[in-house]
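for the record, two folds in this file. i put them one after another cuz i was lazy. first one right below, seq on top, structure tokens after. the second one comes after a little note so u can tell where it starts
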Amino acid sequence: MPPPPVANPALDLQLLMQDEHVMVAAKLAGMPTQPGMGHQRDTLMNALFAHDGRSLERLGHDRDWGLLHRLDRETSGCVIVARTAAAYDGIRRQFERRTIDKSYLAVVQGRLPHKDGTCRQPLAETLRGGTKVSVIATAGEPAITHWTTLAAKGEHAVLSISIETGRLHQIRAHLAWLGAPVLGDRVYRSLLPPNTSALRDKAVTLFLHAHSIAFDHPVTGERARVTMPVPERFRERADELVGSGWLERTPPASRP
């Protein structure tokens, strides 16, 4: 059985919500969610173990040290971590029942088929060049992504996105399939047809942000809604591409 993450107090940690049962942490873009190859001490979980390693270690590997879901390394946003077994099990059931509301913001380059819509293309995991990716596949797992355009100009748009499922790279794969990949997405941009306008994208940062998350508190039962402010580099780039004002139209996390 693998050892627990190593506590690293040198890492910055911002908690958006915290009580004796659950924490919601703000994951920065570029920070892995949990330790893996080449990243053993610089992840969100390393920072959380420095904050409350005793509680997380008690949960053990079987409960993933309290971690209830993950974000891609280059995606910023809200991450829920349980501090007790009861909280972990209760929130895990909500994920399984799809009652967790997750709202994302994305800057995309390309042309979506409609201003608002839903992509229901099933996804299957595969390896491309040594990297695990999700591809559209008839026999894949169900995947549902809803999008609403907050602002658009030329071939760029800022979207509000909610997902009913949590497949690997789901938002990135669906948006690329629709012809409007997330700005800065090197992986899924490479899967686009030749001569697609998005291939001219030179961004080096992935413009995808897990803006808010809502769940039923595992002890009180009250609905908890937590939001992580939009990172400055995201806001500035979006303003530059589509104009200001889109942020005021951002809806809270809500069930589709």
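(here's the note) second protein begins now
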Amino acid sequence: MIKAGIVGATGYAGAELVRLLSGHPQAQVAAISSVSFEGQPLSDIYPAYFHCCDRVCGTQEEVVEQSDVVFAALPHGLSQELAAQCYAAGKVFIDLGADFRLENEADYQQWYGGSFRYPELHDLAVYALPELFREQIRGRKIIANPGCYTTAVPLALAPALKNGYIENEGIIADCKSGVTGAGRKLTQNTHYPELNEGLSAYKVASHRHTPEMEQSLSHVAGQPVKLTFVPHLLPVNRGILATCYARLKPGITLEQLEQAYQAQYENEYFIRLLPKGKEADIKNVRYSNFCDISLHVDLRTNTFIAISAIDNMVKGAAGQAIQNMNLAFGLEETTGLKLFPPAF
């Protein structure tokens, strides 16, 4: 059994890791930590876990010592030191935060206000969106797990860009997120009276996920890709809906696009290409590691519209992290992740 440790286990992503790993046939939760709740059972913080996971939150050092793989569910800026500890101890390190996602230190300084404290570890790290960069992930020790928007948008656009069917600039990613994406700590805009019965944009054209999406899509396209990203906050717990707009190149048809997506994704268990006339819906991916994608063309304006839906806590966080753990340890990629969404 793979011994898994979780640093930051009492946040939403950390708690979701515990839930999913509890059903993994070849891994088990060996240790968890939380600065805010050290010494308390996880089931005290999440009563739904009572008698399912009553493990006590220990220290970060205990997690590293007792685990084969360490998941870091921490805010940006807190993972680099932990990654160094894990690497020195020969542990696999999977970061659900942003510290190892950007390849260019100048981009990290611009968008996160930090620096690469261990440049050699950044050189060893891999950006781990499995459906796009699978072969680079296998056997790696330092894994940068993409976030929710940065999973939904690249998966929606990758085949069209790879095949040169859309323009590389002028792309618009219009996205909506459930409130768990903001984390467990209460803020003004996630306070119930502010959030309920509302729908609002935030960090318009200035969100930190923008360079990460452009980085992934540029690798896929083989040339620089620019996009405008506008996120919105939905009054629901879970889900990301990414509606992506791009200008079609002359002569490209919906049938060509459908063939490209089918060719790239036909063997991807977690990507479900929806039939013509259907639209991706966050309700249909809840609690699962699936990404649903629907394809559309507006012939009047020559616009390609790709819509993707994921559960931001699973495919956008904990589920994808376990998918990457499976790859790192040579397991079948879908192990422990085949649960399908509830019908209602």
